[in-house]
Design a protein that fits this description.
By secondary structure, the protein is mostly helical. It contains 6 helices and no strands.
């Protein structure tokens, strides 16, 4: 694994720890948002580790799907869990259960 991939994973782990701070303050919208950031960083590390150029976009799910034959089996099995959310007012919409689910899925 190259240094940039390692950097992505280190930053993802730091963000994962911060999710608890947001959760404890009742900021469920930022729990979900930062959880998405964690997933993005991890997936970019996965792409680099598989020798796939990382695009300059946030949602890399299409790239993962396109190159799934180059990915580890465990990652291939979980590609269906990668999703995006429609626009809405996060502080009004996210609830405790969704924040917990975001943490769990990270």
């Amino acid at each position: 694994m190259d240094k940039l991939s390692q950097d992505y994973l280190k930053r993802a782990n730091i963000r994962l720890e911060v999710l608890e701070v947001f959760y404890n303050k009742g900021d469920y919208a930022d729990v979900v948002r930062e959880a998405q950031e964690v997933v993005e960083l991890v997936l970019k590390a996965v792409l680099r580790n598989a020798g796939i150029d990382v695009p300059k976009i946030h949602d890399v799910s299409r790239i993962l799907e396109k190159h799934k034959d180059l990915l580890l089996e465990e990652i291939k099995e979980n590609l269906k869990k990668i999703y995006g959310a429609e626009d809405f007012i996060p502080l009004d919409e996210y609830i405790t259960e969704e924040a917990l689910q975001a943490i769990e899925e990270c």
